[in-house]
Amino acid sequence: METIEHLRELFAYNDWANRRIVRALESNRSEKARKILAHLLITEKEYFERLYGKDSTGFDFWQNLLAEDCENLAQENAENYERLLKQFDDEGLGQIVKYKTSEGASHANTFRELLTHVLFHSSIHRGNIILKMREESFAPPKIDYIIWLRETATK
Q1: Alpha-carbon gap, residue 143 to 85, rounded angstroms
Q2: Buried residues in 19-45 as b, exposed as e (16+ CB within 10 A)
Q3: Radius of gyration of the chain measured on its C-alpha atoms
């Protein structure tokens, strides 16, 4: 499997996992978990915008979003990344993106590196969300990659 195909698959999984978290938080109402989810989704959006040259200097990655805002942002992010990944082949993923962090530091990475970072960052924070839900005695959703593979294999 080529890298671009693999990234498309991983972003489809990422969307599935994010939406499962959104649905779980509609009934569980964990404020701490929702704040982490908002951070995860805001970061996905900001990195998408960085891919197109947005300067993130001074950006607040820990904004407070309502559950409905999280749901809408999850959908927007999924659509943006799906559209972006349809435009690329493996060679295009090597393009360099220059951007500034929220601290104003300049950096340059490839599309491949930044897209991989988005996936890892989101995965880390979904783990944080699951932990918060368990600490607050809520039953977290099952969001394992292998479960997604099993579910999508049957469709």
Answers
A1: 23
A2: bbbbebbeebebeebbbbbbbbbbbbb
A3: 16
Under the banding of pLDDT at 50, 70 and 90, the label for residue 28 is: confident
pLDDT(98) > 70: yes
Residue 142 CB neighbour total at 10 angstroms: 12
Instruction: Identify the pLDDT of residue 29.
Output: 81
CA–CA dist 37, 29 (Å, integer): 12
CA gap 39, 60 in Å, rounded: 9
CA atoms of 103 and 54, how far apart (whole Å): 14
Check if the beta carbon of residue 48 is closer than 8 Å to that of residue 114. no
Which of 7, 3, 8, 110 is closest to 50 using CA atoms?
A: 110
Q: How many CA atoms lie within 13 A of 53 on its CB side?
A: 0
Structural domains in the chain?
A: 3-150 (1.20.120.450)
Is 12 a residue whose pLDDT tops 90? yes
* Cα 2 from Cα 90, distance rounded (Å): 7
pLDDT band for 1, please (50, 70, 90 cuts).
low
